From TrEMBL:
PANTHER family: PEROXISOMAL MULTIFUNCTIONAL ENZYME TYPE 2 (PTHR13078:SF56), PEROXISOMAL MULTIFUNCTIONAL ENZYME TYPE 2-RELATED (PTHR13078). It comes from Sphingopyxis bauzanensis. InterPro entries: HotDog_dom_sf (IPR029069), MaoC-like_dom (IPR002539), MFE-2_N (IPR054357). GO terms for biological process: fatty acid beta-oxidation. Residues 22-143 form the Peroxisomal multifunctional enzyme type 2-like N-terminal domain. CDD domains: HDE_HSD, hot_dog. The lineage of its organism: Bacteria, Pseudomonadati, Pseudomonadota, Alphaproteobacteria, Sphingomonadales. This is 3-alpha,7-alpha, 12-alpha-trihydroxy-5-beta-cholest-24-enoyl-CoA hydratase. One of its GO terms (molecular function) is (3S)-3-hydroxyacyl-CoA dehydrogenase (NAD+) activity. Residues 161-267 form the MaoC-like domain.
Length: 285
């Protein structure tokens, strides 16, 4: 069933719970390529249960299955693309715990023959205290659901990165097997492991998870401007513009303007930009 507008705006989710432990947070960090040098004392705390630090973008993994479902939204998953990801952190994500999730549909925009844009949001709360930990927002592009009757205008303008040379550029080599590790955090889509599934989707080999690239960008912001303190990150948003293949070398370009960090990610060897319109905000500066 296609998107039913405006009825889809009333779709919600609640009551879901998810628990995780220190090993889950460590596996997630390894899936981002953290501590590839096991003697790096800046990255070691993210993969060691002693005085453990947690990559904030773990919130994206934890939100999986707690928000409004594709079935509720009504669009065909086969023709949908993960367009944008944003997280707002209200409190640090602990190394272990249990959360509840509450999901809602924020907006739908009709792009006619091109499809429809659907924005959903999931609020993650501490399962014991009810405190709000993070708000996770996902923008999906449903290519088969244009002409659904939603407004065509009104979407926020994308963040513009500064028109000057980057203040900092960081390079990360992704391992050829990185998608095999990252998928163990919960995204088992065969597109990321099965060569035949990748070819059917139009790729010559499996691609890296978009949220893995997003997590690597988070790593760059924390390394470059937060002194390796993940609790200083208040928000992170970006648009996915091209796939990354495991083994690609990523270059993250970053610009700082006060508490706001703009960023883009590129694969220079292939001449493509894979993350655009990146915006992070720091606290405590």
């Amino acid at each position: 069933m296609p998107i039913q507008y405006p009825a889809v705006l009333k779709e919600t989710s609640s009551g879901g719970r998810k628990a995780w432990g220190a090993n889950d947070a460590i596996l997630y960090a390894l899936g981002l390529g953290m501590a590839s040098d096991p003697l790096d004392r800046n990255e070691l705390p993210f993969v060691h249960e002693v005085d453990q630090k947690v990559m904030p973008t773990l919130a994206a993994v934890l939100s999986r299955g707690l928000g409004v479902t594709v079935a509720q939204l009504g669009f065909d998953y086969r023709y949908s693309v993960h367009g944008e990801q944003a997280i707002l952190w209200h409190r640090p994500i602990p190394p272990q715990g249990e959360i509840t999730g509450e999901g809602r549909v924020v907006a739908v925009y009709d792009k006619g023959d091109k499809g429809a844009v659907c924005v959903t949001e999931t609020s993650l709360r501490d399962g014991a205290t009810g405190d709000l930990l993070a708000t996770v927002r996902v923008t999906s592009f449903a290519r088969a659901d244009g002409h659904c009757g939603a407004p065509s205008e009104g979407a926020p303008d994308p963040h513009k990165v500064p028109d000057r040379a980057p203040d900092l550029s960081l390079r990360y080599a992704t391992r050829p097997d990185l998608a095999l590790i990252y998928r163990l955090s919960g995204d088992m889509n065969p597109l990321h492991i099965d060569p035949d599934a990748a070819r059917r989707a139009g790729f010559d080999r499996p691609i890296l998870h978009g949220l893995c690239t997003y997590g690597i960008a988070c790593r760059a912001v924390i390394e470059g401007f937060a002194g390796w303190d993940p609790e200083r990150l208040a928000s992170l948003a970006a648009r996915f513009s091209a796939p990354v293949f495991p083994g690609d070398a990523l270059v993250i370009d970053l610009w700082r303007d006060g508490d706001v960090i703009s960023f883009e990610a590129q694969v220079p060897d292939r001449g493509v930009t894979v993350l655009k319109n990146g915006r992070a905000e720091l606290r405590g500066t």
